[in-house]
Prior knowledge:
Chain A is an alpha/beta fold. Chain A has helices at about 50-55, 80, 95-100, 105-115, 120-135, 150-165, 180-200, 210-215, 235-240, 245-250, 255-260, 290-295; strands at about 5-15, 20-30, 35-40, 65-70, 70, 90, 170-175, 200-205, 220-225, 225-230, 300-305, 310. Chain B has two domains: about 1-90 and about 175-260, Rossmann fold, CATH 3.40.50; about 95-170, no CATH class.
Amino acid sequence: MQPLVEMRAVRVYFPLQRGEIVRAVDGVDLVLHPSEAVGLVGESGCGKSTLARALLRLLPLTSGEIWFDGQPLHRLSESEIRPLRRQMQMVFQDPMASLNPRMRIGHVLSEPLEVHGLARGRQAWQRAGRLLERVGLSADHLHRYPHEFSGGQRQRIGIARAIATQPRLLVADEPTSALDVSIRAQIHALLRELQREMNMTILFVTHDLHAVRQVCSRVVVMYLGKVVESAPVDQLFTTPAHPYTRALLDSVLEPKPSQARRPRSLPTGDVPTAIRVPPGCRFHTRCPYAQERCRVEEPPLQPVGEGQQVACHYPLISH
Amino acid sequence: MATIPLLQVERLTIGFGREKPVVHEVSFEVMPGETVGIVGESGSGKTMTALAVLRLLPPGGRIVEGRILFDGKPLHQFSEAQMRQVRGGDISMVFQDPFTCLNPVMRVGDQVAEAARLHRGRTEGDPYALALQMLRAVHLPDPERIARRYPHELSGGQRQRVMIAMAFICHPRLLIADEPTTALDVTVQLQILHLMQEIQRQQGTAVLLITHDLGVVAYTCDRVLVMHEGRVVESGSVDEVLERPRHPYTRRLLEALA
Lengths: 319, 258
Ligand SMILES: Nc1ncnc2c1ncn2[C@@H]1O[C@H](COP(=O)(O)OP(=O)(O)O)[C@@H](O)[C@H]1O
Ligand SMILES: Nc1ncnc2c1ncn2[C@@H]1O[C@H](COP(=O)(O)OP(=O)(O)O)[C@@H](O)[C@H]1O
Ligand code: SF4
Ligand SMILES: [Mg+2]
Ligand SMILES: [Mg+2]
């Protein structure tokens, strides 16, 4: 199957004063297939948002390639990308930041339709009403303003706006991280439903492993700017291959006391900064399995088992 | 002989102006050495409950009704001067964001020492030496060097360790921790919870742990109160409440995590 998205050796660096460089994304290969919901997980600062924005060309690449449906996004100019924009949309953590507070919801939703020449005037307004209903709100809400909605409702509006142009790719960056758990689960169910119904590819960025289970079929784990593991969801949860993935899973505290008190293997210390990335395997400073080789040689991402890839010299499972 | 509760909160009602109360008739007890969790979604009144115990409600907020007894003494009637003796002494606190409690222009070693200096009667020896000892007890690498740094020069996990060092330096009998690990990376969160438990056991401290995370409650608490819209909807031992929830709201919270 032809991938919808292919990222090759993508790097995004941010130069700081004093000649320091933040290696936010540091050589990422990532493939997204059509109609696939992929979770991108990792702790804050590991480069998830930077990668997501780079994918949509909202940030310049330092190096590397991004192919979207066979087109080289990395080589296209902004005006050449514009017609592709309706096919790749984004949902942000804070929908208010992306919704104009002085625009009625009807306008917020019909704007992308008009910009991309999909509908105008009354027709666009009617489609906006149907979009609202599709995300669990009501067409009566078209005349209201963003501040009249709760956090969960606003995120539904953010999603409605993103799917207005029937994109093939939806990138959602921590869309539910600011919401309470019960509302979170409802938004996850909505995303899952929309993904199936519209055959969309979703890149779901989150630091919440629970969320990944509720939305995705595959998970990609990042650590300090690099992908360390990729696997189907169930496989990742039952047989993680990377020691960092194991640590992330062991950090999840289940709400049942009987499960919460299970034994865990946890890394020591804090996550290093992306300015001073450790040499060799970047997890070696915290890894309980680190050997001499790990300090000098960077492990490439390679297959271990069905649909699973890992970047570790001594994976926890072997083929 | 039955032990008397260390903290006893009775029908606590908190209001702002004439608005309807944000905390309504909340009652609970914390026994010596015990860890009690208050869990609920945002806005449910957890922080206001904790701040009322410390008598640190924001301007406009007041205890409309109810009693707060610490070791039998009526905290709700204490003067501000008396409360200053209690805070950081018998009762200390750790918050989600260390920046709200740490002075940005003071070296962390001096700040931890200052906490000891404020309650001289509770500690022995040179406050700075004690601070270094505490920084070592919270497993900070190279405490002498860390002590000379400013808060912004530390990582999030290191700052939270400093907060814990400060909170425990005077051997409090009760620690109130409001979302102490919410701002941390997940792999660091557990290290911090372990650390709090370790020192809590050494010193025999009781803990009132406030969190929105049922996993944190399951992992650390003996008993729990579930709050919803300013009221306690369910309470009991952690095993009871989380394994066999009775209130529909508690069930709903648990189902959202399934
Ligand atoms: N505009 C920027 N300038 C400098 N550093 C940045 C910028 N954006 C992000 N970073 C840094 O890049 C790293 C990755 O950030 P980010 O992609 O936001 O991580 P995540 O989304 O996983 O939390 C972090 O160290 C962050 O501080
Ligand atoms: N300064 C204030 N003035 C008026 N209402 C407040 C103030 N601070 C908090 N509240 C209200 O009190 C309620 C409980 O807040 P809080 O205890 O902080 O909730 P939690 O900690 O459970 O998230 C909320 O509805 C909040 O809006
Ligand atoms: S390569 Fe070595 S240090 Fe890195 S994760 Fe694997 S075992 Fe640990
Ligand atoms: Mg981010
Ligand atoms: Mg709070």
